[in-house]
Amino acid sequence: MPINVLVTGGSRGIGRATAIACGARGWSVGVNYMNDAAAAEATCEAVKKAGGEAVMIKGDVSKEDDVLAMFEEMDKRGPLNGVVINAGINATSMPLADMSVERMRKVFDTNVLGAYICAREAAIRLPAASTAGQSSSIVLLSSAAARLGSPNECVDYAGSKGAIDTLTIGLSKELGPKGVRVNAVRPGIIDTEIHASVGDPARLDRIGNQTPLGRPGSAEEVAEAIVWLLSPQASYVTGTNIDVTGGR
Ligand code: NAP
Fold this sequence. Notes:
By secondary structure, the chain is α/β, with parallel strands linked by helices. Helix content is 47%, strand content 16%.
C-alpha cells in the first residue's frame, strides 16, 4: 500500500534523505521547506527519480497558519498516513549564561512549538488512515542532545529535544488506541549543514570521530530508521526512541 508522507524540513539534510528513501519505496512525499526553494526542488526531483511522487510545500513550522496550509495541501493529495516531524534548528555554541531570550525563543518556537503544531495536525488526520486499514505513523526527530544536555554548547536546543521525547511518549499513548504509532529517532552527530549553520562545521569531525564507531553518521543512515518506523514492518512499535548515534 503506497504511503502518503509529509516530511517537515524535507528539503535538506536528514529530511532530504528521508524523502528520497520514501521515494525509493514508491511512496508519495510532501517536501516542506522554509527558505531554500532550489533545495526543495532538487529534493523533489530526486524523490521522483527514486521512484516516488513529490510536491514541495513552503511553510514555517513555527507559524500556525503556515502549518494549516501545509496540511491542507497534503489533504488534496489523498489521505495522509505518515508525518515526519523533522524541521529543526540549532544556534551558535555558548553557555546558558550568555544566551539571549531571542535566541532561546527562536529555538523553542521552531523545535518545540513547531513540532507540537505539526503533531496536532497529524493527530487530527492520521486516525482516519488507520480506520481505513492503512499503516499510520508519526516519526519525530529528537537528538542525543536530549540525554547529553549539550553543556556550554546549546542547552536550549538540548531541552527542545527533551520536549520531543516527552511528546513522543504522551502522543503515542493518546493515539495508540486509534491505531496511530508515534515514535522518535535520536540522531547523534550527523553530516548535514546544521553544524555549519551554527558557525562550527569542524564540530562534525571533532565530536563524530570520538564516537565508538569513530565517525559522524550520514543523513541516509538516519533516514533508514525513520522509514522503517513509518513502514508497516514496524507495526508493533510505538512510544519508542531509536538512537542513531554511532554508540555515543
Ligand atoms: P539541516 O540540514 O539544517 O536542514 C534543516 C531543514 O529544516 C531544512 O530543510 C530547512 O529548510 C528546514 N527548516 C528549518 N527551519 C524551518 C522552519 N521553521 N520551518 C520549516 N522548515 C524549516 O538540519 P538536519 O541536520 O537535517 O536536522 C534535521 C533534524 O534532525 C532537526 O530536527 C535536528 O535538530 C535533528 N538532528 C540533527 C542532528 C545532526 O547532527 N545533523 C543531530 C541530532 C538531531 P530551509 O533550508 O528552507 O530553511
